[in-house]
Amino acid sequence: MTLSANLNIMKKAARKAGRSLVKDFREVENLQVSMKGAGDFVSRADVAAEEIIKAELMEARPSYGWIGEEGGAEEGKDPTRRWIVDPLDGTTNFLHGLPHWAISIALEHKGQVVAGVIYDAAKDEMFFAEKGEGAWMNESRIRVSGRQKMIESVFATGLPFGGRSDLPATLQDLARLMPACAGVRRWGSAALDLAYVAAGRYEGFWERRLNAWDIAAGIIILREAGGLVEALTPGDDILSSGEIIGANEVIFDQFAGIIRAS
């Protein structure tokens, strides 16, 4: 497995930020937490992790643009490339002491995601991919599930919280999907949901109202693992719409047909 210089830079940044987050995770009860919005929290650990990642990436590639969950967007001297970063996807899990959260780093080139890293530091599982090179978890190549029947398949999604307007649509999705499948999981990290579909742990994933940094790395990891990924509305751009559906190739059409029936 030969990695590009950019992917090595991304993995190094993720590991460095991961060490910082794991240290804070062990002291989660002592974290100073401020409200960022209804049902949405940000900790000093989150901000510190983004600063670590940004310092690593921008030192190595100072001409690239940047967009991060905490620090906003910056245009680079090279307008064709930018980093898309979520320093802590699964913040609520993190703050409740639940070891299911991840760092997500993607590289976009001319509007297309060409490399991605999702690092689950609590479990030391690093999912990564770059265009045309397949998808990996640590030292092992990963592929989407080979299951072909909906009734044997497990799916993941996010459940809207805090009175969000997309709750009725999601409840309708569940009402149509759950009788047709083996189960639905809501684990609180869209990045890891996509990585798990890529690794064959879930058969599919869908969600609305996500941000580019939640899903950018997961899109390329899932595609390089042999999965299909689209916007919920066919033809829309996934990153700008924030609505996504992905699955293995065999069940994608049936799964998408159920979700898109609303």
UniProtKB/TrEMBL annotation:
<keyword id="KW-0460">Magnesium</keyword>
<dbReference type="InterPro" id="IPR022337">
    <property type="entry name" value="Inositol_monophosphatase_SuhB"/>
</dbReference>
<feature type="binding site">
    <location>
        <position position="88"/>
    </location>
    <ligand>
        <name>Mg(2+)</name>
    </ligand>
</feature>
<keyword id="KW-0378">Hydrolase</keyword>
<dbReference type="InterPro" id="IPR020583">
    <property type="entry name" value="Inositol_monoP_metal-BS"/>
</dbReference>
<feature type="binding site">
    <location>
        <position position="214"/>
    </location>
    <ligand>
        <name>Mg(2+)</name>
    </ligand>
</feature>
<dbReference type="GO" id="GO:0007165">
    <property type="term" value="P:signal transduction"/>
</dbReference>
<keyword id="KW-0479">Metal-binding</keyword>
<dbReference type="InterPro" id="IPR020550">
    <property type="entry name" value="Inositol_monophosphatase_CS"/>
</dbReference>
<dbReference type="GO" id="GO:0046872">
    <property type="term" value="F:metal ion binding"/>
</dbReference>
<dbReference type="InterPro" id="IPR033942">
    <property type="entry name" value="IMPase"/>
</dbReference>
<dbReference type="Pfam" id="PF00459">
    <property type="entry name" value="Inositol_P"/>
</dbReference>
<feature type="binding site">
    <location>
        <position position="69"/>
    </location>
    <ligand>
        <name>Mg(2+)</name>
    </ligand>
</feature>
<feature type="binding site">
    <location>
        <position position="86"/>
    </location>
    <ligand>
        <name>Mg(2+)</name>
    </ligand>
</feature>
<protein>
    <recommendedName>
        <fullName>Inositol-1-monophosphatase</fullName>
        <ecNumber>3.1.3.25</ecNumber>
    </recommendedName>
</protein>
<feature type="binding site">
    <location>
        <position position="89"/>
    </location>
    <ligand>
        <name>Mg(2+)</name>
    </ligand>
</feature>
<dbReference type="GO" id="GO:0008934">
    <property type="term" value="F:inositol monophosphate 1-phosphatase activity"/>
</dbReference>
<dbReference type="InterPro" id="IPR000760">
    <property type="entry name" value="Inositol_monophosphatase-like"/>
</dbReference>
<comment type="similarity">
    <text>Belongs to the inositol monophosphatase superfamily.</text>
</comment>
<dbReference type="GO" id="GO:0046854">
    <property type="term" value="P:phosphatidylinositol phosphate biosynthetic process"/>
</dbReference>
<dbReference type="GO" id="GO:0006020">
    <property type="term" value="P:inositol metabolic process"/>
</dbReference>
